[in-house]
Amino acid sequence: MDSSGLGVRRAVAFVAPALVLIGIFLVFPALWTLYIGITNYQLTGPAAANPQVVGLDNVLEAVRDPLFTNSVWLTALFVLFSAVIGQNVLGFALAWLLRSVSPWLRRTIEGLVLLSWILPSTVVAFLWFAVLSRDTGTLGLLLGSPETSWLVQYPMTSLIIFNIWRGTAFSMLLYTSALAAVPPSQLETARLVGASGWQTVRDVVFPHIRGHVLTNTLLISLWTANDFTPFLLTSGGPNHQSEVLPVLIYRQALEGGQLGYASAMSLLLLVGNLVIALIYLRLLRRRA
Amino acid sequence: MAGITIAALSTVYPNGVRAVDSLDLEVADGELFALLGPSGCGKTTLLRTIAGLEGASEGVVSIGSRDVTRLQPGERRVAMVFQDYALFPHMTVAENIAYPLRVRGVAKSVQQETAVRTAEGLSLGALLDRRPGQLSGGQQQRAALARAVAASAEVLLLDEPLSNLDARLRLEARTFLKKLQRELELTTVFVTHDQAEALALADRIAVMDAGRIRQLGTPREVFQRPADTFVANFIGSTPMNLVPRDDVVLGVRPEYLAPAAEGLFTGSVSIVENLGVTSLVTLDCGEDQIGYIVPEDSEPSIGAVVTVGAPAARVLRYDKETGLLVR
Lengths: 288, 327
Known about the structure:
The structure holds 2 protein chains of 2 kinds. Chain A has 14 helices and no strands. By secondary structure, chain A is mainly α. In chain A, helix 9 crosses helix 11, helix 10 (184-192) packs across helix 11 (197-225) and helix 13 (245-255) runs antiparallel to helix 14. The two termini of chain A are 31 Å apart. Chain B is α+β, with helices and mostly antiparallel strands. Chain B folds into 2 domains: 4-224, P-loop containing nucleotide triphosphate hydrolases (Rossmann fold, 3-Layer(aba) Sandwich); 238-319, CATH 2.40.50.140. Chain B has 8 helices and 18 strands. In chain B, the strands form 4 sheets. In chain B, strands 6-7-8-3-9-10 form a 6-stranded mixed sheet, sandwiched between helices. In chain B, strand 7 (155-159), helix 5 (167-184) and strand 8 (187-192) form a beta-alpha-beta unit. In chain B, helix 2 packs across helix 3 (108-121) and helix 2 runs parallel beside helix 4 (137-150). Chain B is globular and about 75 Å long. The two termini of chain B are 37 Å apart. The A-B interface holds A 183, 185-186, 188-195, 199, 203-204, 207-208 and B 51-53, 72-75, 78-80, 82-86, 88-90, 99-100, 102-104, 147, 151.
């Protein structure tokens, strides 16, 4: 078993620093969140000094809370339209179409798409603020309707389009490499029998990249469900209309001071993530 | 059913390489035609240009009386079998064979019927429900051929059809391919770098080099009278003896040389290579090495001095400068 020849003691000594860091910054906060999720812990007041264990009361309360159910619904919409459909379809379309353009054009477009992905969230959020804001927003001026306040009048639509713009690069990169694995002779066979673009994608390409599609969808779904950038654009408003779960949890915890309640919601979000992951894993296994 | 006419065809790649260089070629209806040459000679590009997978830079490709130069591959009525067969791994053999019909929206029952009939013709009847991964190399090749046949194209194109098979299977597949082509009477062009394959299969051969045709002829013509020293060197399983003499280069196949009282070359035996029923003997004649073939059990001993000659009609003369055959 000791293939490195270090001996158990020295091996443990080598991994210990990393394990300690993971313990302090990952395991402990996770367990801590689980613990305070079953208390009435608050940011201030008597419950901050002496939190009481309330069991599953927080979870039951959340399930009955219209703000929470509204938030779950908005998160589902956000994930479905911006990730599962938006980033997936646009990322694949870009990867598919960029195969046949000149290398110069391809690198330029890939570069631009990547740029939207690697910029820091705060910078990007500020840029989109400048584009979408009322009176002086670029989009309003371009469309000749500067009185439109996009983030206020169409908050979810704005967030969805923003997230597609922001995250498509990952899908594009993943599908570009996936498409490189489709044997050219199979694509050419389809061309020779006169298959249309759609027939080629459906009959030749998709069966080859099915695993990639599932993996990609899983990753972007989880990232989008846990994405906090919407807070930077709309803060969940107006009137909770764009309050996806990470935003709701943040506002409950730090604006409302309800640390225990927010932790219970985090737990529910975690469970939701696990359910999504399990569904994808089941689909992957069925394919194999 | 249709022949192929190629006129002044050039295919130039974006990097400026003229893979096919103003080439003229006519393939007759129902002919089994070989494009033969070393790698990089443009034979595969020519095949792909006929298929429409590469665009012609200049010239015309016609199939029958149709000018197909500007048509999409799917509109040309050509079928192609790739070197790796390009079977769709997620489809059964039957689905693969019927795929050209499925694309055209032919009824399911007709698809099934065609798949069964075509598969029977290529002795794949028992394998219809298998997937390509469950087939041997030879079966995969026949499935790919069946798909091409089911497309009911006017022209069949084969890219290195035998190169992915092991040596024993290759012989079997070669016979099968020739028989199938004879039955279908389908105009067929295949690409190969193996001169033995071209000689054995084809009705006519085009020997290519640097995007041009060096010689066009029947296997017999190409073997017996290579048009230049390049073809002479390329054709034949033992290379032709090319010996400079005065102002010409003499070309004699080892198979045509035999010991003679008064011959062309005299030298001492340096190497004997066993080829099965024959042996290749190499004579050391000063500057030149001369090879000739002897039947089994009549090999000379090493060091023996031998004089060999050939019938006058079998000794070819090539121009020293141009390398062309002197008539």
